[in-house]
Amino acid sequence: xxxxxxxxxxxxxxxxxxxxxxxxxxxxxxxxxxxxxxxxxxxxxxxxxxxxxxxxxxxxxxxxxxxxxxxxxxxxxxxxxxxxxxxxxxxxxxxxxxxxxxxxxxxxxxxxxxxxxxxxxxxxxxxxxxxxxxxxxxxxxxxxxxxxxxxxxxxxxxxxxxxxxxxxxxxxxxxxxxxxxxxxxxxxxxxxxxxxxxxxxxxxxxxxxxxxxxxxxxxxxxxxxxxxxxxxxxxxxxxxxxxxxxxxxxxxxxxxxxxxxxxxxxxxxxxxxxxxxxxxxxxxxxxxxxxxxxxxxxxxxxxxxxxxxxxxxxxxxxxxxxxxxxxxxxxxxxxxxxxxxxxxxxxxxxxxxxxxxxxxxxxxxxxxxxxxxxxxxxxxxxxxxxxxxxxxxxxxxxxxxxxxxxxxxxxxxxxxxxxxxxxxxxxxx
Length: 429
What we know:
Elements: H1 12-18, H2 29-58, H3 61-88, H4 91-114, H5 120-137, H6 140-149, H7 154-182, H8 186-203, H9 210-218, H10 223-235, H11 238-267, H12 272-277, H13 280-296, H14 302-316, H15 318-322, H16 326-337, H17 340-353, H18 360-411, H19 413-416
Helix pairs in contact: 2-3, 2-5, 2-6, 2-7, 2-8, 3-5, 3-10, 3-18, 4-5, 4-6, 4-8, 7-13, 7-17, 10-18, 11-18, 13-16, 13-17, 14-16, 14-17, 14-18
């Protein structure tokens, strides 16, 4: 598959921006970064609370696990058409809509609790609505990123995002748990506030002029035709198909481990604050890993880097498989998250720098839908299997999945031979 001319940004704006050393000196990057960061904060501050509330309102670990799966499935399904919608409409407007709707949803959730009307039915409805918005419009900021920084610095921006994500999650989860301790409504009001701040940042976002011209070409065809075209683009690339299968296997294991840790701690009656702190290991590992990734992402061959990072992730879960003690959980999640930023920067950098600008939303939607559908089953799987094989046995099985991904990548010539970023122009996607 060859990249067409629409994927190359040749404007004077882009050339001048690339000469600057800091991403934050690129026009519109600060506004984009602010909007994306506050949207993430809005999710992080209630993430742990959602799991706890689902368990408390339903009274069942199994139901809580299936509820996590339902949210993932809804996000994946809505993402199928969301990518096409994103490619056909103004990104700034869609970010404003996403932030505004989410702010209203979480404000409603908090208000229902304060007034004593928050039942499991209302809770599930509002959460699934949020998952729908996330699936349908959640890829907008990512689709807009390449227009802001350009393909040459996309891998670097991905590394920065990984560290940013970890930092926000490190602060967001304990903050949400602390607010939850004061009032179960406070985390939802905090989410509404963060989403409102994202809305304000998006008001200052201005994308390059070439975006409107390229989007007008996309609108010449029907919505269905554009959706089909996006999936054809993805499926015609054997590299993407193989990568999605490998990533899907590994992601299922990673998601299942996180669900198992949370469900295990919830069932043991661990305080929400300590549950949130269990994710600090993941966050700290990601922050450290993102610093390394920013230095290595442009020099490490993608294929070899993928094999190496997946292998390291598999070995990282050994301490947690040996013991379910809190300290071992922190150690394993820290070690497992260290290679993740480099893995994401290499894979996303290669795929999306080779994807035409007008297909960014649809390509990301097709890839993420496939991965999310696989990963969304992890919550139900963890909820069903933990009572049967125990925590250590479950972690050992998930280690095997990560190891399988590393082996498949090593045996696949399309993945194994992808070079470092300076040579990406020499290979097809």
